[in-house]
Automatic annotation (TrEMBL):
Protein name (record): ABC transporter permease subunit
PANTHER family: AMINO-ACID ABC TRANSPORTER PERMEASE PROTEIN YHDX-RELATED, MEMBRANE COMPONENT OF AMINO ACID ABC TRANSPORTER
Pfam families per UniProt: BPD_transp_1
Subcellular location: Cell inner membrane; Cell membrane
Family: Belongs to the binding-protein-dependent transport system permease family. HisMQ subfamily.
InterPro entries per record: AA_ABC_transptr_permease_3TM (IPR010065), ArtM/GltK/GlnP/TcyL/YhdX-like (IPR043429), MetI-like (IPR000515), MetI-like_sf (IPR035906)
Ligase in keyword set: no
Domain ABC transmembrane type-1 as annotated: residue spans: 88-379
Amino acid sequence: MSGTQALPSHRWRPSGRKARAILWQGLALAVLAGGGAWLAINTMSNLEERRIGSGFGFLERPASIPIAETLIAYAPGDANLHAVAVGLLNTLLVTVLGIVLATVLGTVVGVARLSRNWPLARVTGLYIELARNVPITVHLLLWYALLQGLPAARSAISLGGTAFLSNRGLVLPAVGMPGGWLPLLAAVGVAAGLAFALHRLAARRQRWSGRRPLVWPWAAGLLLGLPACALAVQGAWPTVTLPQLKGFNFAGGTTISPELTALTLGLVVYFAAFIAEIVRGGILAVSPGQWEAGVALGLDRRRILRLVVIPQALRLIIPATTNQYLNLTKSSSLAIIIGYPDLVTVINSIITDTGQAIECIGLIMAAFLAVSVSISLLMNWFNSRMKLVER
């Protein structure tokens, strides 16, 4: 049709600034890809020159390394994969113990830091400053040196006549279970799940009717009754073996080594100081009006702290505490400096035996990544449950 004008084109044309940005980003990606390819080719070439195989087939070969502490049965000659599992379980043991104990100690110290008792507040403040400003490595070496300075087993410090402390570690009574612990643990797990379900049903009933049914007798019955039934069906009951000094060492009982004790104490004392400051900051972040409201309701200071302030402070405490949990998990790899057979120590021995460092380091990275992500997911779920619900 004559006299009509062509419609303007709407095709995207990058401006000069955008074009330059795209060009530089493309060049950066090309450089990274080229660097990665060069590293891969160079690594494969060096491995071939040294006649070092690649892949994870070495995990099926027998391991020649001894491991002093194991949570599952292990002996030299088992597969390398089994040795890695033993090291991973040792790391998880230290991580769980460290997180639980550091949380308890940090919470107590953080609350005590705000106490009106002047000596208590100053002593806890001094502990926090000393613990936070000394490297974690020094903490571990200090505790290990203190434990090595304890008397020998024949002169061990008696703790009530049933436990003993010496330079060989802490010896405690051993609890055994003929036939294994699996049926009892399964019964405890089922009872805990049912008790939790009862708690949820009671909370729902309270929202509907305004009255909360009495749950704790049923929960206590489940937690005591189901394990007792499992023991009766199994036909066996737990046995306790007390440690006895025979010669130069103790026989019977269970021994917590100085390495495990030093590692746990070092991690707990160090990270509890950071958790204490997080708890203190979370409590101080709650509005002073909440304290005044609690006083107006006739509550004492402890109940105000437990029922009013702490629940509101959790939304600030949990995210920062999660970071400390992750730092504690990663710092457990320093066990190698005091000889505790954690994952890093075991895999380092496998590297020395097989020479396959790249695959072994990849296993370490994957294991710590999985543990850290699991802790983050769990704490994020807990944080979502603790959020204040606005009406």
